[in-house]
Amino acid sequence: MENKKLKIGIFGLGLIGGSILKALYFTDKYYLIAVSKSSYKEAENFCDYATDNINALSDADVIFVCSKMKDTNDKLLELESVAGPQTIVADVSSIKGFLHSEYKFNFIQTHPMAGTEFSGFSASKADLFKGAKWIINRFDPVIIGIINDTGANPVVMDSVTHDRYTAQISHLPTLLSFALFNSVEDDARKIASSGFRDMTRLALSNPDLAYDMLNFNRQNIEEAFIKLINSMEEIKNLPEDEFKKLVYDIAQKRSKMYDENGKNIF
Questions:
Q1: Alpha-carbon span 163 to 230, nearest angstrom
Q2: pTM for the model
């Protein structure tokens, strides 16, 4: 007899939720339920059932909560009246410290390390996670299998470490991108080319998402900023020969960090 397909619910259909849905749809391995107040009609061609009713998730085996970060705790609380104790519920928030940890269901904190400056279901794509890291706070074979099926590489990492690292490699760069754009004179922007474009790309981020990231992970960002300032002071005071060597060393390390598709190969 054919094995029953695992039922996966996607609760929230923005860039991340839509991309999870599309990636899993093309595997043809799962029964997919898409739930969104605003975008479920757009998702109908990529799932088995699309609705605006959260109760459709009552018999799901796994639920991904892909709402705005500031709404995640509320959405998780909503699910307590819907999901059973054996249901695996996973968030996708880029910060973990603000989340409640105890629920009636089996809660796993996750964060796909992928995205774009665009938002909404129309910006989602099936290959968004291909080759990307996907953080989970504890090992679970079901979640590991689903992540692998999106094309991502699961990495187990505790939530405290996650928030410290994302402050350094994501949230501080976002803050610096906004600050750099804001510090440049209007006339200077008129002659700006690729360097300024690339350094300020993160200033194109969804404003709601950027604000939540910078607000919810403030302490870790401040600590990362202090490390950056200390590093800049150290570099500034290096003798010329040591400064030149450092520039070459960093350029070499940076050249080996990403593959031709822009994915981290560390």
A1: 21
A2: 0.89
3-state class of 109 per DSSP? coil
Q: Per-residue pLDDT tens for 1-51?
A: 456 899 999 999 999 999 999 999 999 999 999 999 989 999 999 999 999
**Which among 132, 125, 172, 171 has a CA at the least distance from the CA of 151?**
132
**Residue spans of alpha helices (H) in the chain:** 15-25, 72-79, 141-150, 159-166, 172-183, 186-189, 194-199, 207-216, 218-236, 240-255
Contact 45, 126 (CB under 8 A): no
Strands of 73-171, DSSP E:
88-91, 106-108, 110-112, 133-136, 153-156
Distance, CA of 224 to chain centre: 19
Tokens of 177: 């991108």
Q: Are 265 and 259 in contact (CB under 8 A)?
A: yes
Q: Give the tens place of pLDDT for each residue, 206-258.
A: 888 889 989 999 999 999 999 999 999 999 999 999 999 999 999 999 999 88
Per DSSP bridges, beta strands 30-35 and 110-112 are unpaired
Tokens for 207, please give them: 């404003």
CA dihedral 124, 129, 3, 66 (to 10 degrees): -50
Query: Tokens at residue 155, please?
Result: 């990495």
Please list, in sequence order, all residues whose beta carbon lies within 8 angstroms of the beta carbon of residue 205, skipping any fewer than 6 positions away. 117, 174
